[in-house]
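Protocol step 4 of 6.
Sequence for 2,3-bisphosphoglycerate-dependent phosphoglycerate mutase (Chenggangzhangella methanolivorans) entered exactly as in the expression construct, tag removed. Do not edit the line below.
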Amino acid sequence: MQRRLVLVRHGQSEWNLKNLFTGWKDPDLTERGVEEAKAAGELLKTEGLVFDVAFTSKLKRAQRTCQLMLDALGQKGLETIEDKALNERDYGELTGLNKDDARKTWGEQKVLMWRRSYEVPPPGGESLRDTVARSLPYFVREILPRVLNGETVLVAAHGNSLRALIMTLERLTPDELLKRELKTGAPIIYEMNADSTVAGWRDLGAADEEAA
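Step 5 output, structure tokens:
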């Protein structure tokens, strides 16, 4: 039985381009983001993947990335489940601020601590630990059982909500998780064992970089 899980961070958003803290705000994809999503779909098509179900967040940049990938795969009408548990980390008072301006307001070290600490949240927002506590139970309850049942599952979400899943899948420590970078529009394919451990995984974004 094949048990495949594919995780994809959404394509570049308008606020990614402007270097803004985005969080739960809802900007759309840029033209580059649209192309990244389409290219991700084409990559998955060359892998011969056919999905049984897709999951995404309640934010349009992830939803649109998901749909563009499915269009490229020829699976336009696929069951797609949206849930806020897969939303990006809430950046609280940092939301909408340019990252350079935030450093000027609060100082380089404090902003770095909020961004790269596992446990310390920005004012009014979520820490990475909070995001894990929100996203991981949903994954275990709703997504993982379908993978273990032999379905091929696509998850299009966000850098930090995907890190929450990757922490468990790749058995990363909090420090290792903080260093785990995810490219926009770069699929990661996991082959799962029946006991929910990972048999192997490939980051197609990394493969793309090597080819370049």
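Step 6, annotate. Strands lie at 4-9, 53-56, 80-82, 152-157, 188-192, 198-203.
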